[in-house]
Amino acid sequence: MAMLQVQHLQKIYSTRFGTMRVQALRDVDFSVEEGEFVSVMGESGSGKTTLLNILAALDKPTEGAVFLDGQPLAGVPDRKLSAFRRDRLGFVFQDFNLLDTFTLRDNIFLPLVLARRPYAEMQAKLAPLAEMLEISDLLDKYPYEVSGGQKQRAAVARAVITNPSLLLADEPTGALDSRASMKLLEMFRRINENGQTIVMVTHSAIAASRSDRVLFIKDGVVFHELRREEQETDDSLFARVNEALTMLSTGRLVG
Amino acid sequence: MKAFFPRIAAVNLAGNKTAYLPYLLTSSVCVATFYIMLTFAISPEMARVPYATGAVMLFGFGTVIIAIFCAALLFYANSFLIRRRKKEFGLYSVLGMEKRHVGVVLFFETLYTLAASLILGLIGGTLLSQLLFGALSSLLSFDVVFSISFCDAAAIAACILFGGLFAVIFLYNLLHLYQASPVSLLHGEQTGEREPRASWILTIIGLAALGGGYTIAVVRTNAVTSIPDFFLAVLLVIIGTFCLFTSGSIKFLKALKRSKRFYYKPENFISLSGMLFRMKRNAAGLASICILFTMLLVTVSTTLCLYLGRESSLQQLYPTAVTAFGEASGADDVTEALNTAESIAQENGAELTRSLVFRSGTLVFTEQDGTLVLTQDGDEADHFVYATIVPAEDYAALSGEEVVLEPNEFLLASSSLSQDTVLSLNGTEYRCAGEADALNAVTQTGLAGMDMQFAMIVCRDAESLLTSAGGSLTGFNGYFDVTGGDEAETAFAEAIASSGCAFSYASSRADVAQEWYALYGCFLFLGLFFGALFLMATGLIIYYKQLSEGFDDSTRFAIMQKVGLSPEESRRAIRRQILLVFFLPLAAAALHLVFAYNIICNILLILGVTDRMLFACLCAATFVLCAAVYYLIYRLTSRTYSRLVRA
């Protein structure tokens, strides 16, 4: 049974008076197994963000359904939606979205505090996580005192501290320099190796080549899919992703 | 193309109307209040109001205060507006407008605002001055209602003052514009905020100042020094309020944050850290609200109390219809004066229903455990007793009683000293032999425990007693009641002062009452006027606070909702923070008022109001009323905040 099942998603936006209709997603259909690290690639306007918003239960599809652990997202009542997102999903954003009035520690604790967990439990969960993400020394600093990469690692800690079923990352390396990006991707790999399922939306071929599987979206459908071969290196996958991208943009790749 | 800049300026003002409309309203109200106050101070109509000379002076004084207050208020509002618009100015620069051009746009904006506020303010002021003049007439208890006309001198003064103010504001904005680079303007609003740090020194200074102010207000009970004491206490409390709002609050919040169990709860987690940063940014504004609100409470309740208590305070100072004073040269003066008074009353066809005439001398004693000793130079003014020494023979004549006193005995009339009081003078102890009933009516009231007491002491051989104590029996007092109403009383007072007897000065209560009412009426009028102005200022500050808070918090709450804060939870958190922030000044103001109660009572006592209960009730009523208005302002403005945060 797949961790995440996305079935025939269709999303149509219409302007306020219904005169203009934009089809953001035509027919998106895929599934993610537990423990998988999947990248979603596509150009601007390909429907990536819409897909992510639907996966995050921030938006509702016009047609089709999303199942997380076999549970349909559409079945979660509105008033429980916030709690659902908090407990079952973790988010990492391009612009970190850390609160500037909190220390990194408190930023990471935020979802646990909202879930009313006792302080001792929070501490116990944070310690190994901070160790793994190499931010143990930075916990009492404020976001403006640390670098972008460190901010993003804190944001990752905040996303996974609740042990979510699924970690959704939206261009996590978008605001980082190449060194910080590599380091962050390394962290994603580690988290994934600990069993965390990850879906990452990205522009970057390097970032995508760190995952197990790459989905290419174009004009609202999953256009192409690459799977890491047994023992395949990152570099090899990177080459294949680049190849696919070139073909995708020149229009020579079909199906 | 010529009209380009003026048009941009107009579009800007319209586009920023959530921020500019209150600004325009405020400056219009400022113009109106200034115009009205000045009109009352200089208009020839006011000079025709009977007994208004004192009041007109008060209005002149009020005009100056309003001018200063308006300047401060407009500067505050402007600095808020300019901070908000930095980004816009940056954008202009990036789009290729030179600073010079932005300056021209700013100039037109300022010009429009000035013109609009002058027009609105002067029209409003003219209409309102008619209405207020009517209100003032009824407060002053005179019936002639005539209207006050447009005062061009006041209007011109308002144009000059506000023209000047806006010019200075414009220059200030220009200076800001020229100092900043486009990039810093673009990011002007989002410079990373440091964690607030509170200094122990400021906290301790704040606590000490507040404690000192409160102590002075509560412990120092001497009525004579209460006015300087009051200003000292006010100064200390203002310092204390500012220090504690800026530093103490942060120390307190940090202490709360240190308690893990308390801090890591959803309802406290968000509010506490939000509050910390909020206090850092808003402490000064909140402290100003607190001070303004306290001033509002004190001004309104005090002037209201003076106005309502005017009858009793008049009765206090003028126990009889006519009061006369003069210089006594001998015992014969008493009989002569009594005869004169009788004949004047007869001439006027009135009847003398009471006449108390006696010689007196004044001595100041210090009370120590029920014993009065002569005050030495340098004694603390804390237990002074102002004693009027009256010769026994004069008392016998006026009371019609036979007075039998031993050489070391005296009769006492005092509202606060007991009959066991002992008088110690030149090594002799005098003891009280009874009450001087006939003088009770004309003894000034002090309050027990209040350190200004009054006593009338009747004794044998008053002249030598006074001389030995360094005084003299030269005071001459007359208290008369005559039939025939106010006019007869006034006529009697005039006649007896010029009759050639020992009285050289006389005044009737009826006469004084007019002036008294005019003065207290003006006091109340000014109090309410300033009260309204303070309230408006408070409202403006709250509104701008809510606006800036809303802008700042909207991003914060957007993030929290992404991370899993439900809309309901975020609404609760918002409400909690706003409530805390805006009701903190109100609570502090109430506390200030409670501590100020005692010292204000003392000041009121000097002004002749002895009714503490009345003042307490008025304080409570004023507080409830103003708090209600404050709450209303808060409700109205918090809607703006919620809209910003949710958007």
Which labels suit this protein?
heterodimer, A: 255 residues, alpha/beta, Rossmann fold, 6-stranded mixed β-sheet, 4-stranded antiparallel β-sheet, 10 strands, globular, B: 647 residues, alpha+beta, 7-stranded mixed beta barrel, 19 helices
Coarse shape of chain A:
globular
| CATH architecture classification of chain A | 3-Layer(aba) Sandwich
Q: Distance N terminus to C terminus of chain B?
A: 37 Å
Largest beta-sheet characterization of chain A: 6 strands, mixed
Oligomerization state: heterodimer
How is this structure best described in words?
The complex is a heterodimer of chains A (255) and B (647). With 255 residues, chain A is α/β, with parallel strands linked by helices. Chain A has one domain (4-250): P-loop containing nucleotide triphosphate hydrolases (Rossmann fold), CATH 3.40.50. Chain A is 37% helix and 25% strand. In chain A, strands 6-7-8-3-9-10 form a 6-stranded mixed beta sheet, with helices on both faces. A 4-stranded antiparallel beta sheet of chain A has the order 2-1-4-5, covered by helices on one side. In chain A, strand 1 and strand 2 form a beta hairpin. In chain A, helix 3 runs parallel beside helix 5 (148-160), helix 4 (119-133) packs across helix 5 and helix 5 runs parallel beside helix 6 (178-193). The radius of gyration of chain A is 18 Å and the shape is globular. The model of chain A has no long low-confidence stretch (mean pLDDT 88). Chain B is elongated. The longest helix of chain B is centred in the C-terminal third of the chain and has 55 residues, at 509-563. Chain B has a 7-stranded mixed beta barrel. Chain B is built from 19 helices and 10 strands. Chain B is an alpha+beta fold and 647 residues long. Helix content of chain B is 68%, strand content 11%. Among the domains of chain B are: 1-192, no CATH class; 329-501, no CATH class. The two termini of chain B are 37 Å apart. Chains A and B meet through helix 2 and helix 3 of A and helix 11, helix 17 and helix 18 of B.
